[in-house]
Predict the structure.
Amino acid sequence: MNRNITAPLSDEVAKELKSGDYVYITGTIYTARDAAHKRMWEALEKGEELPIEMKNNIIYYMGPSPAREGRPIGSAGPTTASRMDKYAPKLLDLGLKGMIGKGKRSEQVKEAIVRNGSVYFAAVGGAGAILSKAIKKSEVIAYDDLGTEAIRKLYVEDFPAIVVIDSQGNNLYETAIKEYAKQ
């Protein structure tokens, strides 16, 4: 099913999304990759506040290339989500509602998605130039010293993604293989 959704993501919408749904996200999302996740993890261990509120937000695992003149951001394709698996369950428990990346997630992440009624989306790898067209504003809001791995606040319009793991734990990567094997 095709769905237009708004970010931040409400509990109700997250629970309605089903594995295999095509979504077009409009609103505010954040970027964070390996280095930013590690720094957030360290902040939590020290009892410090995170630079972004997790509740109902979506993090896109992306490190952009430099913006061309007149554009808010350069190529903006997803990175491999499993690199954030060590950190994701804690962030989900803090209220993170969605993650966008590419590739499989660990069983611990899947359990945290179900426990928190969250969602894992996939964006198409290799399509960063096309995906960047949905990004209308980009602003570094934390960890500027990390360069492309800094945390950014993005405003997106009709950002295309696919629900891979829904709030019930249904995983498109598993069900698609079974469906294909039947043919």
